[in-house]
Amino acid sequence: MKNFGKYILFLISLFERREKLKTYFSLTINECIKIGYDSLFIVSIVSIFMGAVTTIQTAFNLVGPLIPDYVISLVVRDMTLLELSPTIIAIVFAGKVGSNIAGELGTMRITEQIDALEVMGVNSSSYLVLPKIIAALLMFPILVVISATLAIFGGYTAGVFTDVITGQEYIYGLRYEFNPFNIPFALIKSYVFAFIVASISSFQGYYTSGGALEVGKSSTNAVTNSCIAILVADYILAQILL
Amino acid sequence: MIEIKNITKSFKDKKVLHGISGKFEKGKTNLIIGASGTGKSVLLKCLVGLLSPDKGKVLFDGRNFTESDKKITTQIRREIGMLFQGSALFDSKNVEENIKFPLDILTEISEKEKIEKVNHCLNLVGLDKVNQKMPSELSGGMKKRVGIARAIVNDSKYLFCDEPNSGLDPLTAIKIDDLILELTQKLKTTTIVVTHDMNSVIEIGEYIMFLHNGKKLWEGDNKKILKTKIKELNSFIFSNKLMKKIK
Question: What is the pTM of this model?
């Protein structure tokens, strides 16, 4: 509970003694590149294989003489939008971006770079963390949209190449009884998960004390705590919104 | 001038500073010396606001830094320049961006003026053609010089140096000491240096405060320090063979 209170105070401190808006603009753009663009490769690889594996496994487990083939793409579509793209990519995001944020801030803390900012009269938490959170909120939903598209494409490719499903049936399944709310639901999840990963990782990194060993621990804690928080938030959001 | 009154600081049950008072004058290099673990760095952190003292006051030209509202403390902080033990240069920025940083954040001057100021400060600390280098490409001594340049670029009134000589060879250490002394006299800053380097004490100690177990045991200058009769200070000063020979 003490840590949770500290986390809340940390979040409040982001909005105190803010610098000029143009300062945040360039920082946020840089963070968008680091957080969004640099994650594109891993997100793409994971998404394509996620879709491909879901197609093959669904075909293996589900399809029988009474179940039409298009059910495969229907399952891929709903699983991708409702769970796989927002949640699995959030966990990948926590591993890549979360550990990077915690490591960067932790190193800045132990090498007194954060103290240097404070001595200059800069609110270090706001200056360093706010652009990361804003960038995560801007970029992660885009990554989720790209991930969902690539996962569905990966499923299509795997299905057609292995003759599990024809292209026409796959597309028919994608459009069959589509619930449009799944898209805003996936996006709401992505905003929540982006905030969780960026804020928890920043918190872990910002309060690092000690040396290189502690920076490593902060990175590990950032990933672990972010993953747990993502799963808890995933359950709560599903309960509330579906 | 910086004045400290009855500064006391504890961490849990351990009292680190016991009611320390003193005056650090403008245009002088003021040294806080003592063995490791005596509270020098804690006192310095209390002075620059990285730690809050449990009791006592820190006055910057009469302005109370410890009890004022955030506007005043922010204003005072913006008049402070600090050289950290490890230089604390921002890894992601090159030398020019590091030195320019306080100007970007704290001033509205044009980019051209900023670059002129950066080059002027680099010139003052004896560096040139390093603007585009990253901190990882610099030697320890160069990092310290860049750290000093960053500390003075915003016309800081107060200059703090935490162990400026640590990790440097004797020749570079002397150069850094001379630079601190020269800048203090030229820019008329109130300079406070935390050190346990005896060379610095002898070379630049215009006012020296000696801490022992979190208490101020002695104050004076570099001429008086060698004649002191205080046992703890004597054992600190003459702990190495060279100093014993000089004695």
Answer: 0.87
